[in-house]
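Could you please consider the sequence and fold following this short note?
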Amino acid sequence: MPAPDVATSGHAFTPDAAAALGGPSWLSRRRIEAAEKLAAVAWPTSREEIWRYSRVDKFDPGRYSPPDYGEGSGPARQAPGGGPFAAEAGDRAGLVVVRNGRVVHAEVEPGLAAAGVVVADLADVDPGLAAERIGACSDASPDPFTVLHDAFLAGGAFILVPDGVVVEAPIVVLHWTEGDGVAGFPHTFVGAGASAEVAVVERYASTDQEMLVDAVVELDLAENAHVRYLAVQEHGTGTWQVALQRAHLGRDATLRSSAVALGGDYARLRSESLLAAEGAESDLLAVYYGDGDQMLDFRTLQDHAAPHTRSDLLFKGAVEDRARSVYSGLIRVRPGAQKVDAHQSNRNLVLSEGAGAESIPNLAIEADDVRCTHASAVGPIDDDALYYLATRGVSPDDAERLIVLGFFEDVFGRLPLPSLEAPLRRSVNEKVGHLHPSDPRGAR
């Protein structure tokens, strides 16, 4: 059955609802423009290549509504603390806490603030800083969900590091969504000026209620900027996530971006890097693990628009029970982008009957002096590896866990924030532990 379109379906995402969110005039104008576009948007279907194998046909906007930010019902503007995740991240330069898409707390070290570093709610930032930056990356890659996001964008994390400033400790952003039938629209903007350096860690989490998280992350790197970025997705079992992460890289800029995806019912991430000038480099990493009836869906783009640019992608995942994963990636080399070095690899373990993984790497090369490779693999655990461990006295359940954890090890070793390697390994280990809850083959 085709997905309903916004123009004809009964739902709460109306222009009046968008206008009622208030906020600064520039943000209200952006919302109203998007809400007007939304009235004519038709939701995509799985017949479209970019949505192939997805669950988008099951999406019904009528099941969700924007959060009520009215007096007495919205999040209190108080500091709720960073929680265990922020503590595990270690020393931090700043903290942003976001509830249902709105910032409830933001802080930055005084010395960094004096140097011009901004860590704040985008709705509270001087319009001269925010108005031209919000959408600078995401507007270049719209889809129906980014239009919906823009129509109901009420606030979000805004991080700006001026030219030449080096932020030693990471800035932590915590996103929390709650409420049955709620649609949250988290937005994060990270801007790194010329020769600036910053690390940003985000965690997305939610209750087990049925909800929609429509997220956008923009990473804007000026000349010779260096950004490390890690996103950890641990949503509850009822969450549908549709997220865009898009980076624009200037001359000699470097991005080290990683994603860990463990939660959600259907969780989709579109991860894109535009290497817009010579010398830009982008590394994209991901670890994902699905169980139960989860679907984890990844679409990536390594877009080389300039010569002498480099990108490398490594996504590794595992699925068990009835879970499914989808990976579809494209390396694009535009005309004139000579001397490009680009690589893409996706590898998947299917751990039980009923689970499945799709892997579709692609190349679109319009230059003739490049070095580009892609590779993918989908399969079960190697029987020879199990046999090898069995001959050394390792039980079948421990052997399978060891092999799965070892499968992810090279990605964990390259995460941009070493302090989180151990807790993230522990989170994956907990998922792997579900393989054998009581006996060597487990009770499903």
User: Anything to note?
Assistant: Residues 15-277 form one domain. The radius of gyration is 21 Å. DSSP finds nine helices and 20 strands in the chain.
